[in-house]
Each structure stands twice: as structure tokens, then as C-alpha cells.
Amino acid sequence: MNEIYEEFRSTVRRFAEEKVKPHAAMIDRDSLAPEEAFEAARALGLQGIPFPEEFGGSDGDLMLQVIASEELARVCASTSLTIASSWLFSIIVENGNDQLKELVPGVASGEKKTGWCMTEPQAGSDLMAIKTTAKKVDGGWVINGNKRFITNGGWADWYLVLARTGSSDDRSFGVFVVGKDDKGISFGAKEDKMGQRGSPTCDVIFDECFVADFRCIGEPDKGLSYFKEYLLTSRLSISALGLGIAQGALDEAVAYTNERVQMGRPIAQFQMVKGMIADMVVKVESSRALLYKAVNMLIEGQPGVEAFSSMAKIACTDAAMDVANDAVQLHGGYGYLKEYAIERMFRDAKITQIYDGSNQIMRQIVADQINKVQVG
Ligand SMILES: Cc1cc2nc3c(=O)[nH]c(=O)nc-3n(C[C@H](O)[C@H](O)[C@H](O)COP(=O)(O)OP(=O)(O)OC[C@H]3O[C@@H](n4cnc5c(N)ncnc54)[C@H](O)[C@@H]3O)c2cc1C
Q: Which part of the chain is the Acyl-CoA oxidase/dehydrogenase middle domain (predicted)?
């Protein structure tokens, strides 16, 4: 990895230790959005990584997004997730009109927060089941529907909404930008979650919600293709988030097993414990290698990147769950107490195997594409 990336990693790691970690247990316990960490991240420009400099961003490539996701999640997955949610707004830079682009600097600077709305009660893995509609009217569009499980719901200022613009059995979708103060948008109750409790999640409801024409991104029937392209980068950020949890759990396990003394010596010296630590390291390092291979493939526009992104998602997020599970085991009874960070990491890990395309769906993509990709 080149020097710029390594330097960036050290900077974000230091930032995460100093400005993010101190809030992690509290925002989890009280289910509060990471206000302090999000605000502090603005000074470092983390929200603006993928945006061009003319829009107030740092014109960073996907590698920087992934490094930031990993390093933040190493200490706090909720903070990592809420910051990564800003990045999808860069869809506007490439596909939006000039009036929409005026919204970008606010998001790139972290002054405004964003969420993206795809999932619905009946449409999780099955996007074709989406029922939310956008109907063309004079001067704009009227949106009706119910989006479920929206990260930053109620907390964000702007929402990217995928809605049907054609009939219910065709693939015409538009992506619309809706503001939290627009007439006709409302928010469900905050979900009481198992993990990543510092990232707000709720329903976002559209009831005769009118948005002007310029709030439609690009062509009103090409939304799915715009979203799909950006979802690939988002999948790699989520993979990195999983990897960060795995690395953080490994850090906790190594520190604890070197401190904890039983039968007259640190438990790290027992052969079975050494075996577990070694297996955890292998999971972390092998998933890291796969992730960074997929990132490079995407940056270089290589074929087969969808399959490799899915492989990275499986490897990194399964590693998060497995390594966190083993790390709790190595903490003994203490790992079951909320006083220890590993208890939170264990809960935070689970959702990474489910959201942003569940790992079963990822496996389906890998298996379906096995004949098309060059493996090895
Ligand atoms: C905390 C959190 C944050 C989220 N943030 C967002 C967000 O910001 N924006 C957004 O749009 N969505 C968001 N989601 C939604 C998330 O992406 C979905 O929950 C996820 O895609 C799975 O959909 P589902 O929950 O409806 O499960 P389902 O699709 O009903 O799946 C249930 C189970 O069946 C399996 N399954 C389904 N279909 C198949 C198949 N064809 N083959 C094999 N197995 C299958 C799944 O893998 C899963 O195990 C979030 C969810 C959570 C919990």
C-alpha cells in the first residue's frame, strides 16, 4: 500500500482513538447519534472524501473511503456507518443537475447529513418488490410509500429515495432527493436495535410528498442503474466496516489474554488460546487481502469486480462475527459484561452480515458469476 494511504490510515487511527473511541460506549448504551464524533470528523474532512475539491471535498479515491471505514469501525461501528452514509450523495456529482449540485458542498463539509432509502417492508433482498412511487405532475413529482430501516433516518437533512416511475412490473425507477423539512415526509419511531445502536434507524414515510423537477437525479427511469453503481462502492465500505470490527475485536482479545492470569501465567501462553488467536489473525488478514484486491479492481475498472466485492463482503463480515465471537470467548465471563468493549463489538458485528445485501445474496452473486470471473 502506498505512502499516502499509510499516512492517511495513521491519521484516521489517531483520530479514532482520540475523538471517536471515548464516545463509543455511551452512544451505544443510550442509543444516541454520534454527534461529537461526526462533528469532529468534519475537521479531518472525512465526510468529504469522495467529493471533488470544487464541491468542498478532497477528491479521494475509494481506497481512502475504505481505510476510513475500517479505522473508524475498529473503535466504533456506529460512527463509521453514519459517516459512510454521506458518501452515497456523490451520486449527484456525476448524475445530478446544476441546481442539485448546489446541495453537495453542505454534505461534503459534513454540515448536512444524508440517508439513502431503498428498503421497504415487503422489499428487502427483493428490490423489484419496491412499491414506493413517484408520479409526474406539473413542475415536479409526488412521492408515496414507506421506506424501512433507514440509517440516519430522522437525523439526516437529505434523503436519496428510490421510487418507481413506471408501472409496477417494469424496471423504471428514479432517484429523488427529499429534504427532512419537505411537506409530506415523516419519520417512524427510532428502532431499538441489538447493535450499532449509535446509528439512528427508522422508517421514512412519504405521503403525497411533492418535490420539484430538479430533485430528480438524472433520467427518471435510470435510477436503478445509478444506484447499483454506487452500491458497489458502498458494499466495499461496509466490508471495511466489518473488517474494522474484526480487527478491533482481535485487538481486545490480544490485550486481554496477555493481561489475564490463570494457573500462574497469562492465558495467552496456553496452546489452545494461541490457536484461537492465530485463527482470528488469519481471518482478519485474509479478508483484508480480499477487500483491498476488490477495491483495486474497482479503481482500475477490472472485470469481475462485482463478484470480488461480494466475496469481500462475505469474508470481512463473516470475519467480524467469528472473530468477535471468539474474542468474547477469550474474555471468559467478563466478555459478557457491558463494561467491556468486546460485548458491544459482538452485537455490532451481526448486522454487517445482513445489511447492504445479505451474505446469502452475496453468495448467490459469487456462485452465479463463478464462470465469468478469473479466480486465482
Ligand atoms: C441497522 C440497519 C440499517 C439499515 N440501513 C439501511 C439503509 O440505510 N437504507 C436501506 O435502504 N436499507 C437499510 N437497511 C435494510 C437492509 O439492507 C435489509 O434489512 C437487508 O437488505 C435485508 O432485507 P430484509 O431485512 O427485508 O430481509 P429479507 O430480504 O426478508 O431476508 C430474510 C432472510 O432471507 C434471506 N433471503 C432472502 N432472499 C433470498 C434469496 N433469494 N436467496 C437466499 N436467501 C435469501 C436473507 O439473506 C435473509 O437471511 C438496514 C437494515 C438494518 C437492520
A: 117-209
- Domain check: are 260 and 154 in the same one? no
Residue 318: per-residue pLDDT = 98
Ligand 1 — pocket residues by CB below 6 A? 115-119, 124-125, 149-151, 193, 196, 201, 351, 354-356, 358, 360-361, 364
pLDDT attached to residue 376: 62
Q: Are residues 287 and 322 in the same domain?
A: yes
> Which residues, in sequence order, are bridge partners of residue 145?
206
**For ligand 1, mutation pick of 81, 161, 350, 355 (most atoms within 8 Å of CB):** 355
Residue 353 CA to ligand 1 center (angstroms) comes to 9
* Contact criterion met (CB below 8 Å) for 221 and 172: yes
**CATH number, residue 343:** 1.20.140.10
Query: Between β-strands 201-212 and 185-187, what pairing exists: parallel, antiparallel or unpaired?
Result: antiparallel
Q: In this predicted model, what pLDDT tens digit does every residue of 324-349 receive, in sequence order?
A: 999 999 999 999 999 999 999 999 99
Instruction: Report the number of secondary-structure helices (H) and strands (E) in the chain.
Output: 13, 10
Minimal-distance CA residue to ligand 1 atom 14: 149
CA-proximal residue: ligand 1, atom 52 (nearest): 149
